[in-house]
User: Fold this.
Amino acid sequence: MEKSFKSVIDQSRSILVLLSAEPSFDQVAAALSLYLAIEGKKDIFLSCPTPMKVEMNRLVGVDKIGEEVGSKNMVLRFSGYPAEQIERVSYDIENQEFRLTVIPKPQHEPPAKNQVEVGYSGVSADTTVLVGGARAEQFPSLVGSELNETRIVHIGVNDISAPEGRNIISLARPAASVSELMADYIKELEGGFHPDIATNLLSGLHEGSENFNKKEVNANTFKLAGELMAAGGKYTRAEEFKPQSQFDLPGMKQMPMDMPFPSKTTKGAKRWEKPAPEEDTHGAPEGETINPPTSWLKPKIYSGNKGTSVS
Assistant:
């Protein structure tokens, strides 16, 4: 067994950081922090078997998480196309370009362009870091053969039992959050934090410890929170986070309320005109307008003389 997490990473050429299915906010924050700490120094990939939830958008680098475990091999699939309609597949090199030809059986059409799906499979990493999880079943790749040629390390607050035939280097130990553990391992690698890493770890620390209310919280937890804030870490609560609306996107502006409506010109092109003011039809039948007599529009003169009585 390796002496430290740093020695595991130093001996690795490429690394796969693998999240469990349906990971918590804390676990995603920890995995992203590790990714940011190693990115640019080693080939590193980040994967999760299930899609990210909207709340994860508060974390820096969440767009780096993919659903495919590896990218060692390219895989072409023909979605919705019956495989028995294919006669054979051939390839050749033309102008130094690889060309794949799919030949259908007689009286059958070839696959349509929208039926072609491109994906990847196979793990090229020599080290896989499992983040979080309470059971091995939460990591589907442990069951298959994709991780057969990779060294597996687990970081979490719970130990997981290795499936038969697997060896897992466990770096799990009890803590208030996975982010708290990951902070120690990142300091071992880098000696400190930059603001993006500090922001992710601080967010994971808050969420994972239930705002420092878990029984596992201790003085070191608060000390770490102070270090992360001093390094530029910022924590945004879920209720304070405002995802971008369609009007917040680059180049998009909200239409003002007094914007005139479009109308067609005689040539069919659209131009902008202010809507005409509505006319008061005074109860006229639909489609008609009543024009009042001119006498109605003249000033009214009332006499001050009192009326006389008839005797």
Remarks:
- Residues 245-270, 306-311 have pLDDT under 50 and may be disordered.
- Residues 74-119 form one domain.
- Residues 220 and 279 are 74 Å apart (CA to CA).
